[in-house]
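Usage

Read records sequentially. Each one opens with the input sequence:
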Amino acid sequence: MICEICGKHEATVHVTEIESGQLHETHMCEDCARKQGEKIGGPFSWADLLAGLASAVSESVVDPAVKCPRCERSYADFRKTGRLGCPECYSTFEDGLLPVIRRVHGATMHTGRCPTCKAVEGSPATRLAELRRMLREAVAAEKYEEAARLRDSLREMERKLEGGEEGGKS
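and closes with the structure output:
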């Protein structure tokens, strides 16, 4: 598809707008999209989008004053900037981030295709994350026997990984 603005380059940016109930699509090249972005207030920022979505999440989910123990950034900082300070922020602010991630992606777990060069789906990190999620759900549902079994599986897998083993393929 060719850019609808300059008619010279391949259209790689597709903008859909709804105005007065009418759907209008514009297909443009990166240069024209950049120029259009400048007209409406500058380039698009994912951080601004995330900050806007985070501000829509109820403040009762995460206390804005809570700070990450590693980088000292607060959830209020994330709500203002849309940026986290370090990897630890993801677990510190998990309750507030999950609704934002769900609104952006439609899910909180990867559901798309994985690169064929790596078996990401079967990776130890992915299995650990899945076990942790299942454990949280079991505890929330008060299924304590299942939670105990999952906790033991999680500990065993973590022990194997710390010992340098791959993580229990059967």
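Summary fields computed downstream for this record:
- Residues 120-162 form one domain.
- The chain is about 50% helix and 10% strand.
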